[in-house]
Specification:
The chain is elongated. The longest helix is centred in the last third of the chain and has 27 residues. It is built from 14 helices and 31 strands. The chain is an alpha+beta fold. It folds into five domains: 196 residues, Rossmann fold (3-Layer(aba) Sandwich), CATH 3.40.50.300; 113 residues, Translation factors (Elongation Factor Tu (Ef-tu), domain 3, Beta Barrel); 69 residues, Elongation Factor G (Translational Gtpase), domain 3 (Alpha-Beta Plaits, 2-Layer Sandwich); 115 residues, Ribosomal Protein S5, domain 2 (2-Layer Sandwich), CATH 3.30.230; 71 residues, 2-Layer Sandwich (Alpha-Beta Plaits), CATH 3.30.70.240. Helix 10 packs across helix 11. Helix content is 25%, strand content 31%.
Amino acid sequence: MKILLHSKHLLQHGSFIFRKNYVYQTALYSTKKVGEVIKDVNRIRNIGISAHIDSGKTTLTERLLFYTGQVDEMHEVKGKDQVGAKMDFMELERQRGITIQSAATFVMWKDVNINIIDTPESDFNCRKKLMEVGHNQVVQDGFHDEDGWKADMAESATLGDAIRRATLKREFTPVMLGTALKNKGVQPLLNGILDFLPNPSEVTNYCLDNSSGEEVKTVMDSDRTLEHPFIGLAFKLEAGRFGQLTYMRVYQGGMQRGDVIFNTRTGKKTKVSRLVRMHADEMQDIPEVYAGDICALFGMDCASGDTFVTKGNMNLSMESMYVAEPVISMSIKPAKNEHIENFSKGIARFTKEDPTFKVHWDDDIKETIASGMGELHLDIYGQRLEREFNCKVIMGKPKVSFRECIVSPVDVEYQHKKQSGGRGEYAKVIGTVEPLPVENNTKIEFKDKTVGTNVPKNYIPSIETGYRDYCGKGPLAGQKVSGTLFVLKDGDHHTVDSSDWAFQQAAHGAMKQAFDNGHWQILEPIMNVEANAPEEFQSAVMQGLSNRNGIVLGTDSSDGYFTVYCEVPLNNMFGYSSELRSQTQGKGEYTMEYSQYCPALPATQQELIAQYELEQQENTHQKKKKKKN
């Protein structure tokens, strides 16, 4: 049950008054000493600010910092003073006016400590960070639903109590009205965080206990004491001035400077020499932390998502975190070969820090492929490689893994014979090259149907090897051959001159005949695409998919949103992430997964053939130049 609270409604209840004068600075912050740790869990809130791109997340955080007295001046994300917002402390963030990596800070409001995560833009999978650290989300896109929450009202003395009860049950989402850019409604939002959102003890968190040999889900104790076994989750890594900085959320027990903690994944131990809490890029040393706290440590050898415990508790670990599958891939390579070492170091660090950023070598297309949550996500990492590792990179549309397939059976017969004194080479193969059924059009198969001893059985594997080797490049566009069956029917051999090598060459010759005499076509990968957006943008989204040769399989509609299911060639999906965001004001999302290989459109096939012929001509020209030199 969720409801939208309008300002006129709130003004009727004394406990929810919006102050008319929003612009003056009221520093209702505590005089808490530097380094003091709050023991009362009721005085702690953990929140994250989440919304789509350019909606004002960092601007809101800047206002929260200012009105709580954490900063003395407000600065805009793209302000004329060129200072930039406090939370965007990376040079690239201030230059581009966007948040690139999640940043942590804390404020005091009415003697309550509020830990805040300012999340990156939507391309960077910000919600994953919030789920990892168990944050309440302050979402800047309001959701509401007026299905009866009167039961809570009946059990509560005031409207505020009812809202809090329903919010803790996740049946209700309070919506606060205001504008951070104009400094409106910031204090009521801070009041709402205190009044409605849970403290860490009011959220049930689980760990896995495998002491019995099986993983048993166990509720963690949120008491802020050292009596219970320590359990913490490393949710963010950052390369700082003093080495790797590891952000950690404590879920159970506590940790003090000097303690030794263990990584449950690697078994490695680390002595906690320094504990800090972060205010953007500034640190505050603290002596200890307890369940519900967010801290940072140096000298940790870990990856994002690792669990840390104290000695004797290696059987405890956090549940595996959910990492969304990448939605876009691009080819990436260093602009200069001498920068390959820096390139490798940068990729290793970024993939360790960010599990949604993945890089792999694709042996099919002979390219390094970077995958992430959007084009902006990948573009930022390209710029960071240049700035932080002095390695300029070239990023582009990745080559799609096309295939070539024979359309109808063709008979082949080839004799390989060489005689140049001494032992010669001799082998002969007779057979048929034919297409496989559609459901097997990603495979190549070989069948031996020979009878008698014309082709000795010990040479059959060599013929198959020669056939498979020759399928590495097809006749039309140099793509891999698939969906093809070689049926060996007969052949011939010589007792002296035949060898494994000779039969491999005979298989090559037979396949060349099939390439020259057969009818071939190019296959392309087709993706199942699922796009979701508000119904008002349905027409634009459908038209966009149609322009990419998408075939619509069906649509659904629910709660003001629609979902379209379709099949689209992978070759036509490049750049769709940005297009969909543009069509839907940043509110559209899509996923895609491989479906099948199908014959490519004639235009695509002609383009690939022309491109391959041009490459062949250039290669021939280069070879001639080398011979002359």
